[in-house]
């Protein structure tokens, strides 16, 4: 297991960040760019950290043993989903850059609050979080992050193929048209937002023991941007994009470790170059490679006659 | 009553800097429809340029030790004039950096008509590069402007009102005066001159403007220069008022600037001024027992404004694109 000893931490980090990239993918299925994920990620982590360290939960921990960990995931998902509904219902009336700004504001407010509460440990945060299931090595977190990744991918694939997925796609392509055929945009947008929130919350709850400490630096504007970069650079139109983007970009600083001081500069340059030359993301570029000649758009079919005979 | 007055003074001073900083954002947004996240980094750079020129010492492990424009013994050394000149040069250099940013990170994207959200990532990449280059070149420590940077005039005014002291610092007067002067000049340039007319035409509709013989890319360069100039000058003013400028100094202001322009109305120039003053005052009036939450005020206002009136205080009604 030498390989895992050396690279296990990196692999787990890649999965973890890939999952966070995916948490942006769900709202994006409905065409909503939300940067709120770090807020839910931080919330999930705080819930886990508090339940695993606070004396108030000592009784629970004794009674539940290892089951306390799955419980923190469930509670983190529920709390994030609930907060997601509270924030999402008003905020999702906004679109594009306005929604992005509102979600940035949400993350900033949560950060200031968590810096000032006693229960979150203030600026210092919470530390000494016990390792999940008594793991002795960081790479063992692969046993919880990998199944979660597989589950999320399967879930997302099923979702895309379902009625709900088609409704989300319809909203992404044309919200008014979707509304006109009886799809409630608000309901589906909030649903997609809440799924992303719950996912970010679970990842937070899994990450608190993985990182051993939890503080307000976990859910910051920088994280919002990092997750956005994962999605856009990986490719926002495919499930694999955010996962791949997260895995690649989060491994970049590690791979560049030899360049010490310069690695963040290079990270920045990668963002610039990738957004300039890979507008469809890596996955988009790869699928273009597969069919080098872009298919000509089929001639636009004349619109079918409207059954009600109204002039369009 | 005295608290009210003191808060008002503090709020107007910081609010006016928010305003000129945010103007840089809003100018670029009104022309290109993108948010230039590197604006906060340009703000930081402005402070560093001025600091280098006027103090010229980075006593640490960075690669650059500094370049003093007025070394000891030279005629203007240590005078407010030296500082004023350094601040102007610093702001001009910031403007040039902003032009360079447009050239490298935005222009190639515009040529292809890429998604504006990609411009967001690209400008963030630029910010990351700038902030970390600063760290490499001069180190991660914060630097303080010497307290007598504006000369030994401080404080400008001490009022006795009802047995309490109200202090108006020279820095505050200068910040407020410089900001208002800049706003007046900018208002004149944009409202009254041919250049301003052309800028407004480009902001309104680049396609039509270019048909009318306006060189759109030239005005985009002008816009970025103005934006960087204002951002860099704001960086210098803020860092002298609060005596601190580290590499990450611009991040918070970058985000607050967003709150300012949304509050005033994205793309609206008077909106940026009103938004800046409103947020500056709102922060100044946070009661001291809740001061820990002061940093959340701008974002709470941003969030509420987006929900109630997304077009902002002075913005035009959003046209829903179908």
Automatic annotation (TrEMBL), chain A:
Ranges where the record places region Disordered: 293-312
Alphabetic keyword roster: Cell membrane, Membrane, Transmembrane, Transmembrane helix
Organism superkingdom: Bacteria
GO cellular component: plasma membrane
Comp. bias intervals (Pro residues): 295-306
Subcellular location per the Swiss-Prot or TrEMBL entry: Cell membrane
Full protein name: Branched-chain amino acid ABC transporter permease
TrEMBL record, chain B:
Entry's Gene Ontology BP terms: D-alanine transmembrane transport; L-alanine transport; L-isoleucine import across plasma membrane
Top-level division of the source organism's lineage: Bacteria
Keywords tagged on the record: Amino-acid transport, Cell inner membrane, Cell membrane, Membrane, Transmembrane, Transmembrane helix, Transport
Transport in keyword set: yes
One example GO MF annotation: L-isoleucine transmembrane transporter activity
Keyword Membrane: yes
Its membrane topology: Multi-pass membrane protein
Intracellular or extracellular location(s): Cell membrane
GO cellular component: plasma membrane
Spans traversing the lipid bilayer: 12-34, 41-58, 78-105, 117-138, 166-190, 219-245, 257-280, 292-308
Protein family membership: Belongs to the binding-protein-dependent transport system permease family. LivHM subfamily.
Protein name in UniProt: Branched-chain amino acid ABC transporter permease
């Amino acid at each position: 297991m030498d390989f895992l000893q050396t690279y296990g931490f990196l692999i787990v980090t890649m999965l973890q960040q890939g999952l966070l990239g995916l948490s942006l993918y769900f709202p994006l299925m409905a065409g909503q760019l939300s940067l709120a994920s770090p807020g839910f990620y931080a919330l999930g982590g705080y819930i886990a950290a508090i339940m695993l360290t606070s004396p108030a939960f000592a009784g629970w921990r004794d009674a539940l043993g290892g089951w306390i960990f799955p419980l923190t995931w469930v509670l983190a998902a529920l709390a994030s989903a609930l907060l997601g509904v509270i924030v999402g219902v008003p905020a999702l009336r906004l679109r594009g850059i306005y929604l992005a700004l509102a979600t940035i504001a949400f993350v900033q407010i949560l950060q200031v609050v968590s810096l000032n509460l006693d229960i979150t440990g203030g600026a210092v945060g919470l530390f000494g979080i016990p390792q999940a299931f008594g793991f002795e090595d960081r790479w063992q977190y692969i046993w919880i992050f990998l199944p979660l990744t597989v589950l999320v991918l399967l879930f997302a694939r099923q979702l895309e193929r379902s009625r709900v997925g088609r409704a989300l796609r319809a909203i992404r392509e044309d919200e008014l048209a979707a509304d006109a055929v009886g799809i409630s945009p608000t309901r589906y947008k909030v649903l997609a937002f809440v799924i992303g929130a719950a996912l970010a919350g679970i990842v937070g709850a899994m990450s608190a023991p993985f990182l051993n400490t939890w503080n307000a630096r976990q859910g910051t504007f920088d994280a919002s941007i990092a997750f956005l970069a994962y999605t856009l650079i990986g490719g926002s139109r495919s499930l694999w994009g955010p996962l791949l983007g997260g895995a690649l970009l989060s491994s970049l600083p590690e791979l560049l470790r030899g360049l010490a001081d310069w690695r963040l500069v290079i990270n920045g340059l990668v963002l610039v170059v990738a957004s300039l030359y890979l507008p469809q993301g890596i996955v988009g570029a790869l699928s273009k490679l597969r069919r080098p000649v872009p298919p000509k758009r089929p001639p636009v079919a004349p619109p079918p006659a409207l059954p009600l005979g109204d002039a369009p | 009553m005295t608290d009210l007055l003191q808060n008002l003074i503090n709020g107007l001073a910081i609010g006016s800097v928010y305003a000129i900083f945010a103007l840089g954002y809003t100018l670029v947004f009104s022309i290109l429809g993108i948010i230039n996240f590197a604006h906060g980094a340009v703000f930081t750079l402005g402070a560093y340029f001025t600091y280098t020129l006027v103090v010229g010492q980075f006593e640490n492990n960075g690669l650059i030790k500094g370049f003093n424009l007025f070394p000891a013994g030279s005629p203007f050394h240590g005078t407010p004039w030296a500082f004023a000149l350094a601040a102007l040069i610093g702001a001009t250099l910031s403007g040039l950096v902003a032009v360079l940013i447009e050239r490298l990170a935005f222009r190639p994207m515009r040529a292809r008509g890429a998604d504006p959200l990609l411009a967001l990532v690209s400008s963030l990449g630029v910010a990351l590069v700038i902030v970390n280059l600063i760290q490499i070149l001069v180190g991660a420590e914060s630097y303080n402007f010497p307290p007598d940077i504006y000369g030994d005039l401080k404080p400008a005014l001490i009022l006795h009102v009802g047995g309490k002291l109200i202090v108006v610092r020279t820095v505050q007067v200068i910040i407020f005066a410089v900001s208002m002067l800049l706003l007046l000049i900018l208002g004149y340039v944009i409202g009254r001159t041919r250049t301003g007319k052309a800028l407004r035409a480009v902001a309104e509709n680049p396609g039509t403007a270019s048909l009318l013989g306006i060189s759109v890319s030239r005005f985009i360069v002008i816009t970025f220069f103005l934006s960087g100039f204002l951002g860099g000058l704001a960086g210098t003013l803020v860092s002298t008022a609060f005596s601190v400028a580290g590499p990450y100094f611009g991040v918070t202001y970058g985000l607050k600037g967003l709150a300012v322009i949304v509050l005033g109305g994205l793309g609206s120039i008077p909106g940026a001024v009103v938004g800046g003053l409103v947020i500056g005052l709102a922060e100044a009036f946070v009661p001291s027992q809740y001061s820990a939450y002061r940093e959340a005020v701008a974002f709470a206002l941003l969030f509420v404004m987006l929900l109630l009136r997304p077009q902002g205080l002075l913005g035009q009604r959003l046209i829903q694109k179908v």
